[in-house]
Write a structure and sequence with these properties.
Layout: E1 2-10, H1 19-26, H2 29-32, E2 36-52, E3 55-67, H3 69-81, E4 85-92, H4 97-115
Antiparallel strand pairs: 1-3, 1-4, 2-3
């Protein structure tokens, strides 16, 4: 299992109050293949830099999940076929990212205390 982060931009006609149900339906591939959805961060409606399919706004969501590479590829393929999904981006997360981030934050705090 690998850790992934995926950003999804959905059609703005999807109602924000039903967004979680819509995401559950779109992401059903992950638990069905033995993966886990670790965190879903819904950003809501945002203005896009450039229009996609003549739409200037989109509903953004960032999903952290663990799955096999085949599951991630199948998820990306299925999302590409869905008309509600305007754009997706799946990235593999670095395994040591959290440890490095915590170490950098601790070093920054130590430098701040030393300077004071």
């Amino acid at each position: 299992m690998r850790h992934y982060e995926m950003m999804i931009i959905l059609d703005p006609t999807v109602e924000e109050r039903t967004l979680n149900n819509t995401l559950d339906k779109l992401l059903h591939v992950i638990p069905a293949d033995g993966g886990t959805i670790d965190h879903i961060d819904v950003w809501g409606s945002r203005k896009m830099t450039f229009p996609i399919n003549k739409k200037t706004d989109g509903l953004y969501a960032v999903i952290d999940f663990s799955a096999t590479s085949e599951t991630a590829a199948e998820l990306d393929r299925q999302l590409g076929l869905n008309e509600q999904v305007l754009r997706t981006k799946v990235m593999r997360k670095d395994e040591n990212y959290a440890a490095r981030t915590a170490a950098l934050a601790a070093a920054a705090r130590a430098n701040t205390r030393a300077a004071a």
